[in-house]
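Let us work through a complete example step by step.
Step 1: write down the sequence.
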Amino acid sequence: MFKISTLLVLLLPVTVFAQNIDPAKFEQMKQQLKAMQSCIQKTDKAEMKKIGQQAKALDVEIKALCSAGERDAAQQKAITFGKEIAVSPTMEEMKKCGEQVTAMLPSLISEMGDSEENHVCDR
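Step 2: predict the structure and record it as tokens.
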């Protein structure tokens, strides 16, 4: 999750300048990013590590399925895993940590659909 906050911090200046946001709004976003980072640091580290390990194992499995031409199976595994972790208490906590920031950066938030353009094998 540190990677998410780092990504947001790196993309924030580009987003700000691209949208010509005034300095006060930029400062507000910086403060919200700091608050999000502080919140994330309070999450269950062991559970986050467990989710990360599960994601790595799933990534290996998905790559193997994609290489074998089993795109539908790979996509279904990715969707199932995403749905499972989305309802975990740790991920709910993470979601709450980022609510204010994500509300300010809607262009960085997108729903993963079932369309071919968002297929797990094409990432």
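Step 3: interpret the result. DSSP finds five helices and no strands in the chain.
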